[in-house]
Structure formats: structure tokens, C-alpha cells
Amino acid sequence: MEICVCVKRVPMVGGAIMVTPDGLEVDVTMSGFTVSPHEECAVEEAVQITERLGGSVAVLTLGPPEAAGQLRDMLALGAGRGILLQTDGAEWGPDATAAAIADAVAGGGSGGSLGYDLLLFGNEAADTGGYQVPVRVAHALGLPCVTGIKRLEIVGGGVGDRGVGGDRGDRSDGGDRGDGGDRGEGGGGQRIVASREYRGTEEVFEVPLPAVVSVKEGINLPRYPSLPGRLRAKRATIETIEPRPRPEIDGLRKVRLRVPESTSKGAQVLGSGAEAVPALVGLLDELGVLP
Amino acid sequence: MTVLCLIETDAGGGASDPSMRALTVARGLATSAGEDLAAAWVGPAAAIDTGGLVSAGVSSAWAIGSALLSGYAPVAWARALDGLASDLPGLRGQQDGGGPVSAVVAAATDHGNEVLAHLGAITGLPMAANCVSATRTSPTEVSLVRQRWAGSLLEDSVLEAPLALLTVAADAIPADAGAADPGRKPPTAAAGLRAERYEPGLADGDLLVQATESAERRSGVSLASARVVVGGGRGVGGPEGFAVLEELAGLLGGAVGVSRVVTSEGWRPHRQQVGQTGTKITPELYLACGISGAIQHMAGCQGAKTIVAINTDAGAPIVAKADYAVIGDLHEVIPALIATLKAR
User: Structure pTM?
Assistant: First the structure.
């Protein structure tokens, strides 16, 4: 099973979010960076799948050179390859991002086939929340796509079968993965059974591989990186690809960012410790929530 | 020209609450352009009472049906909307080269976002997710406000496209906003609106992804719709600390919600998580215990009518963001609160 997980470098935001004076970016002078939470779960899911079925995991991101740091974080969790679609750090819209990802993963396999059985994404980016890159990648590659997945199983094709890993020789030295043979239709008869909860019921999807799947946090509990994992990640070579230039016109043009005005100007303090309980009960009564 | 809004039906029959809120924004967009408002849903014409839609400003309605459609099928739904948008039967485009529909709007639910993303990919057009307002400023431009960071940040932007595709962050839109809208267009079709059937042309590939639904429903009070949510964060200290929160939630007929650190520590299951990557809640009361108030958490509880924080740290971000606060240890305050409620 050859899996590519797409992640995005986003600011690590805690108690407050601030905007740069020109109103166009989030002020990151004081913050670190991470990947979106759903994506960390996507990497964990990919690593777990390859632990069960064999194969390998690549992580891919589109971002500035510093995004290599987030790729290394994911390598420390067990991914084998890091691929950086390097940009100057300007924000890419969902359509341009999807096109660059599709370019990078398509035709990387032998005979121009897709080099992966499964493309995993987070359901949405933590920062821009566009909810569409995986769907657009799927359309660009002609693959089925399921989103918001909280449970994922690989079935059929014989457990333990390895997907035929593409060599991707045009962009990297390919390493020792795969045998260069042709991938069978639908990833050798393997399918995914994926489910999510929607409005209180479970929706189950069954689609053939290769496929695009976006997952949500809660599908698993990501492991902490091991020390050997961190050391390996530190030494790993990040494969860098220059994507085709970002289109100058984006259909959705950002004018400015702003922090919504807070409706609360600070809490009214009811008291300290257990002494505040009578006031608290009075408030609950006033709100009409007491039985 | 027409603004077309996708309506999701809810389990009880009728339009879902998020869809009705999306309709509010769709109507605002139609009004800003002097356009009509149409509704479309997948299912039988009788699935939705059109009276409610007419009151919301809808003047035409389409029930999308096909023998090929059984469960939710995102590509097929998008294909149907694409068909309606380019060939809305009975309506003609007023612009040269343009279709009869100027915008397609849906609620920013798992279904709405997914279907409109497919529609964006199929048409090659941009899609703006999680909008809170939309106004037409020119035949090809819509000025909109959309959420980033699940609502912790707002983006003013311009969507430039011959067909505007957008989803509406329903939890940020008041349900009754329509009543207060002075620019509202009177319904043209009065009470007798009948939904017309629309059968989309579908290819096999459009049905490759189709859901089957399990009938199982979770028992107990649903976090998303609970009137009272008792929240617990790092300050709870460990898995055993949640027993008193469960007890309090039980006394108030509510549900327990938790912050992200609680689920990432494995203290509680992820389905109890409130926040950007968990559930968005809209209770009358959110009692946040031992929660610091990171923006990702606040994004999930900003729909609460009243937030009361119980925290040992008067300087915690949540104390600035809550309506009321008790400065103290939840392990002291909550048992005392339970004892008082039981004694009543």
C-alpha cells in the first residue's frame, strides 16, 4: 500500500489570533508552526495502514522552504519520504494548490501511472478552511473521493498485498520502493470502506482504490514521535519540487482579514471557589436551565 | 437571474435548520442583485413543505430525483446542481452567454461543503466555504465575508466568477434573521408553490461514491443540540475527574463536552470534543470548567448563549471571553454546586 499524505504548514495559534498591520496575514512573529490537526491524524492513519499491510508513506506539502520542518515532524511519526512543493510563501488558493498536488502525484509511477494507492488529506485546513483541495485533486486525477472520514478500512485484494509502488524516477532517485511493475486496475482489487457520522447516523462509503480520502481528527490518536523517529526525520532528505507558477488571478480574492469583535468585554466574576455557588445557582435559575 | 440554494432535508421531514439559515444568506444575496430565489433538494417533491420556503423568500423549487440515486452521492448531487444552474427549466439567462443561475448556495455542513467543492471542480470555478454574508457588487462579483480558523478570524473577500459558489457557516447566522430583513422581497408565488421534479443526467462515475446509512443513532443527549453543556479541560486533571462533570450534566439534562487536550491525552473520546476540529455547540449555557480558552476551543462554543467559566486562573483567556466566571478550583466548585442542586 503506497500512501501519500498531503499536509499544510499553519501557524500554531493559542489564546489569541492577531493580524498583520496591512490586514492581509495572520501575525506569526510570535508563533510556531504545525500542521492542521486533521492532517496529523491522516499521517497516523497512513502509518498504521502500512504497519498492517506493508508499503510506505510519503508526506507532501506545498509551502515555503520552512515547511520542510513540518514534513520532518511527520517523518518523525513514521512517514518515509518528505516532498516539498516549494513556494515563496505566498498564499495559494485551493484550485492552484490542488493543481500543483495533482501534478506532483500524477504520472509519478511507472508507465505514467499514479504512484500511490491512496491519497490522504485532512478534511479542511485549520487556517483557511477551504474544504475543497482533496475534492479538486480527485477530479484532476479522475479518482473517487470521500471526505470527513472517521473510520477507514482497506478490504479485498488479499491482506498483506503490497501496492505496486511507483518509481517516480523523474523527480527523485526513487529509493528502493516498488518493483516498477504496472499497477492493476483499482489497486489490485482493493477497496476502502470509509465511514463518518452525519447528523446522528453513520454514513458508509465503499470505493475502489486508488482513491482520495480526507479524514477528521478522532479517526485515531496520533502517536508521539519516538526518539529514533525524530533522529531519522532530522537526517532525512526532503525532496524538493518546483510547482508550476501560481496563477496570478485567484477567483476568490482576499481583501483583508480581521478578528471578529468580541461580544464579551470580560466575564462578570460571580465569586471565588465554593462561595460563588449561590450566585452561580441564581444565574442558572435566571437562564432557565435548572430542572 | 436566480440564486439557487441547496436544501438538506432533515430526519423528521422538512428543511434542515442549517439549510434554512443558508437560505437567509442566499436571500440576502438575491436581494442585493434584485434576483429571484430558488430552492432545490434531492428527494421527492413532498419531502419539504414549501410554505416555509415561501416565507423565506423562495419563488421556485426543484425536487431532484433519479432512479439511480438512493443514498447521498456527492458527485451526483453536484452534477444535478450543475444541470439546474446551466439549464434551470423555465428560466432563461438574462446575460449574454450566462446561465439562468447567478449563484449556488448551500449550508457549510459536511454535505454542503462537499457537494459545492465537487461543483467547483466540475465547473472549474472557485468556491467560498463558510461565508457569513454575501452581497452582489457586479454581474461577475460577489463581496463576501467568510470564516477562517472556524470563525476566530474573518476574511473580507471578493468572489469573481460567472457563477458564484458558496457555503454558509450556519452557526453564525441567526435562524430568524429573515423576519428582520427590511429589504426582503415579497414572495411572488404566494402560498401555492409546488416543487417541480428535475431529473439530472448522470453517468456511472457520478455514482461511484454513494453512502449507505446505518440506522443506528447514538443514545443520550446530543452534544450538538444540548441545551446545557458542561465542559472539561486540562484542569480536570485526568479521566477520573469527569465523573462529577457527568453527574452535573445529568442533573441539568445536558451533555459533557471537552477541550482538545482532553481527547489528545485519551481521557475522553473524541466525539465529546468541542472546538474547531470537534463539535460546534449552541447551548443556552456552556459551563467551561478548567478550560483555558484557546481560539480553537472558542470557535466551537461561540454559538453558546451564555458562557460561564470556572477557572483557578483569573487571567486565563476564557475568563476574558466568557460572560460570567467563578475563580476557583472546579474540584471544589462543582461538587458544591451538585450538592446545592440536589438539596433544592
Answer: 0.89
